[in-house]
Amino acid sequence: MVKYGLDYTRCRWILPLLLGIGVIFGIIALAGRGWLESQTLPYVHQASLWESCQRPEQGGEWTCESLMGYAWGRAAAATYLVGFLLLVICFALAIIAFAIDTLRFNFIRGIGGLLFVAAVFSIMGLVIYPVKFSTEIEMTGINMFSWAYGFGWTTAIMEICLGFFFCCLPNYEDQILGNVKPTYFYSSP
To answer: Residue 35 has what pLDDT?
Structure first.
């Protein structure tokens, strides 16, 4: 990407595309019912960020309890949701930043800083949830934090990595814009 510059049409939209994938992963984490699931038979427990569902035996009716009745449930949902909203804002700002013909590199660095703030909020929610869930909710059998919880962590890791990339990209402004003279490794006689 640095070799061809950000005007190279196939490379220009890679960062907003990766942010869009992070937004999709965040939506899956927010809507998914697989934050916690029973690992072995009987499958009697399933939880999302918003509620915890249990059934007495295999094939029985699920009874669900909202986690918003707990202070830690509201805190975990609020912090993860704030991190997700900041990610959506960064996605919109990245589209604006890369759609403009003249890149504003300080603007891009600001997006990177905002991504780090989003990662902090997301990680706070992802840490509060398992710690308090395992101590406050009675669980039977062997349970595991499952696929939707994994999507939440994937979103947080993408926020951190893309934050570094957005913050470091302005350091290569001259190379990206093509303002650097080529260096030759031979000398003429």
So the answer is: 87
